[in-house]
Structure formats: C-alpha cells, structure tokens
Design brief:
485 residues; alpha+beta; six-stranded antiparallel sheet; five-stranded antiparallel sheet; 19 helices; 20 strands; globular
Length: 485
C-alpha cells in the first residue's frame, strides 16, 4: 500500500511538473539524470531519451564540470549545503553547444532509492539582454512555446481584424470557419454583465496604458457559460505606434469550480513552491494565511506553525497602515474593486524589522464565481531600494558641488564637442545655456595657435590617462587669460 501511495504521489508530481513552464530535473547521487520534464527538453533542445541516464554535466560548460563533481562529492560526505536551498545564477549548455544564462533553485531529498537532487531551472536570457528588439523577439518565442495547446489571438489594430487560433475558436464555441472576426463581433460572445469591464480593459491595452490580464465569462451560441483567463501585450511598429495585440486565452471554467481541490493538493504544491526564489502566499477571505512557502517564512522570520492560520494583516502589516490595507482587502473579497496586479508595501518581520516587498498578485474563485482568496508572489526589495536612494543622494551631492564651484568645469566628447559646462564657465565665456554650448567645440573658445595642441590632447585622452595643458582664451570683457584642462 505504501509503495502504491508513493507511486501515486510520484505520478501526480510528474503530471504537474510536465505542465510547468520552468525546467524541472532530478538527478541521483551519482550525478545521473533520472527525470526531466518537457520544459527541460525544450530549454536544452534534447529529447527525453537523450537525457535520462546521462550525467547532468552535459548540461553545463566543460569548465564548470570538475567543480560541480567536487561540490557534489563534498555535500554527500559532509551534508553541508553550498547552493542547496538557494536560487543562484549559472550557465547552461544546449544540445548544439550554445551557452545561456539560467537561474537554478536546488533541493535535496532522501527516499528508499537514496539521495535525489531536484532542480528547477529558468532560462533568464531575456533578463540579461539589453537590446529591446532582441528581448522582444525572445519574449515572443517563449510566448509562442507557452501558448501551445492554448487559444491565442492576433489583433491587427489598423484594420481591426482579429485572427483566432483553432483552440480559441473551440474555447469560444464558434463554428470552425470563424478564423477572423472584427471588434464589433466581440459583444456577441461576452457575458453581458462583464461587457463594461472587458471593454474598459481592452481600451487600456490598445492604448498601451497597461497589459491585458483579466478573467471574464463567455457565452456560447447554445447559452453555455465558460470562464476564461485572457493575457495580452501590445507590440509597436518602427514609429512607436500600436501595431498588434498578441494574447492567449485559457478556459479556466474547471479551475474556478475546483478551488477546494487546490487545497487538497497543497502539500504537493508546497514542495514546488519551497524551492522558488520569491515569497509565495495565499490569503483567504477570512484574512488568514492558507499557504506560505519557505522563502516567505525566511523573510518574515516565522516558523510555519506561527503563520499558517494566523491573520496576515495583524501579524505582518505595520500597525499604522493596517486598517487601510484591511479595508482594501475586504472590498476585493466582496468584488467591489478589481485586483491590483503589481504593487509595493511594507511588512513587519518577527524581529520588528520593516521590509519593502514588491508583489505580483492574482485572485482565486469559488464555484459560484466569487473571490475566495488572493495568490501573491513577493520579492524583498528593501536593500535594492536603499542602494538606489544612496546613489540618487550621491548624484545630487555631486551635481551640487559642480554647480556651485567657482572654477569652470566642463565635459567634452573625444572630438572636443562640449557636452556640459557649469554656471561659472558659462558666465565667463558669455554663453547663455548648455543648449547653446552643445553646438560648440573647444576650439571655438581658444586661439587658433592652440587648436592642434587641443586636438592632440583629446586624442591622447583616449588612452584613459589624465591629460593636462594650458591654453590662451579670452573673457567676455576682452581680457586674455590662460585656462588649464
């Protein structure tokens, strides 16, 4: 019986993992791969059969393989974790040898088969890209992979043509030949009571004011009502004008009817949540904590028994803002306001330390379509905000020093074109503003005899060494003087 329950649990885990967006991989104490989900195969461009039984080092650059084997051997001897239980950034290698940045969360478990290591891997290439177009192309590629098996639409804004995928046609209960529709057609399939809410969110999305992310109802031609989750992003043309609204549609009717089932599977989900790098918390209508992962407990400093079942607001919201936050939450539970997807607020830890958390939020519904709970993912940004504040303060102090200096301070590019000059310099050269200055070259303010020296000095400055020399200039009242640069 125990073996059957273990097998059922394993099958249940594989069922969940195979539909996870993140790559999930299990290896044994010998470093051999014993399980991968579909996202792992997609991320590393392998077939499942090509990975199972292979050493996990095939997924990492050669220069890191020896270090990995040493770390693994050291842990098996000492059981002292190095990266286990943490989220770290590493480098992975695809089947074709391409290296790419990954984020790894690693946990360890022991069963009758021995020690197993479980890793959740996320491709963070987008985070590392700087060029906006490249990042957008990568996002589209990942989005296309993610929407496989889901309905999607491509809204061509200029001609108001909306292209529907086969899955979306089926989700909407339409005839198979309904490949294209116009905006005027949409009210026919939207639930009347949701129409105003849907149109308001569509207008925001089409104007680029916010991403489209909403739940609403559809009505089939035969009167059947279905719940869907819609998520879309606006793409712009080369001139920065709205071009298309590309989105996905998921039928969530069964999900909304099975909130109780989520509770029964909480223990399995908790194992997955505990190896994520952000705080995850579920708060019920009664304001009590239903689920919180290991990262959340670490940030707040509480044991699981000290927080599960406790009133979230009384426990962690600072007293001075507690009443206001409770009021907003109650209105959300009553359906009087729409959920805010992203926001920041302060939490008070067990040790009375105040931490700033950035949240991503959604809501869960009961079988009658009422809000039953909130599901939130939070990142502790306290230290980051403090660093940003210090940098701003230093920048302000530096600018004040330059602006108030009695010396002429200016900035030039390597061609000698002026970029900036402080008020003392502008006044001494009778220049009205930095806008006027930016049209000038340093040779414009010096005698011709010094032009070659100036250019040679700027050329030498490219080496990174400090360059200094004096040249003759003329003040606004005709007085000739020497300036040092």
């Amino acid at each position: 019986m125990a073996k059957k329950n273990l097998k059922d649990t394993e099958n249940h885990f594989h069922s969940i993992a195979d539909h996870a967006v993140d790559a999930i991989i299990n290896i044994n104490s010998s470093g051999k791969i014993v399980y991968v989900n579909k996202s792992t195969c997609a991320a590393f461009d392998y077939k499942e059969a090509d990975l199972l039984g292979k050493n996990v080092t095939i997924l990492m650059p050669k220069k890191y393989r020896a270090e990995h084997k040493q770390s693994m051997g050291r842990f098996l001897k000492t059981h002292k974790p190095h990266i286990i239980g943490k989220t770290v950034e590493l480098v992975g290698v695809k089947n074709d040898g391409t290296e790419f940045p990954i984020e790894l969360s690693l946990s360890v478990m022991n069963d009758e088969q021995g020690t197993l290591f479980a890793g959740v891997i996320r491709d963070i290439s987008d985070r590392k890209k700087v060029e906006r177009d490249l990042a957008e192309n990568q996002r589209k590629l990942e989005e296309a992979q993610r929407v496989a098996g889901m309905g999607f639409f491509d809204w061509h804004i200029r001609d108001e043509q909306i292209e529907l995928s086969e899955q979306l046609i089926e989700i909407c209960g339409l005839e198979p030949e309904t490949k294209f529709v116009t905006r005027d057609f949409l009210p026919q399939i939207f639930y009347p009571a949701d129409l105003e809410y849907i149109q308001k969110n569509l207008e925001f999305a089409l104007r680029g004011e916010k991403e489209l992310n909403m739940d609403h109802r559809l009505v089939w031609p035969d009167g059947t009502i279905r719940w869907v989750h819609v998520q879309a992003e606006l793409t712009l043309d080369a001139k920065g004008k709205p071009e298309t609204l590309l989105g996905t549609v998921i039928d969530i009717t069964e999900r909304r009817a099975n909130v109780d089932k989520v509770e029964s599977e909480r223990d399995m989900a908790q194992k997955y949540l505990d190896i994520t790098g952000t705080m995850i918390v579920v708060i019920g209508r009664d304001q009590k904590v239903k689920v919180i992962n290991k990262k959340g407990r670490h940030i707040l400093g509480y044991r699981e028994s000290e927080i599960i079942g406790k009133n979230w607001f009384n426990l962690v919201i600072p007293k001075k803002m507690r009443a206001k936050v409770k009021t907003v939450f109650n209105k959300l539970m009553e359906g009087k306001i729409e959920p805010v997807e992203h926001f920041e607020n302060f939490l008070e830890t067990k040790s009375k330390e105040i931490r700033l958390i950035a949240w991503n939020n959604t809501v869960l519904y009961d079988t009658e379509g009422n809000v039953a709970a909130t599901l939130s993912s939070g990142e502790d940004i306290t230290d980051r905000k403090e660093i940003e504040s210090r940098l701003l303060e230093e920048e302000k102090r530096y600018r004040t020093l330059i602006e108030s200096s009695a010396e002429c301070i200016c900035q030039l590019d390597l061609k000698g074109n002026f970029l900036f000059m402080n008020p003392t310099g502008l006044k001494s050269h009778d220049i009205t503003s930095n806008d006027e200055l930016k049209k000038m070259n340093c040779c414009d303010l010096s005698e011709p005899a010094y032009h070659k020296v100036l250019k040679d000095t700027l050329k030498a400055a490219k080496t990174g060494e400090i360059q200094k020399f004096e040249y003759e200039s003329e003040t606004v009242d005709g007085l000739r003087w020497f300036e040092s640069i």
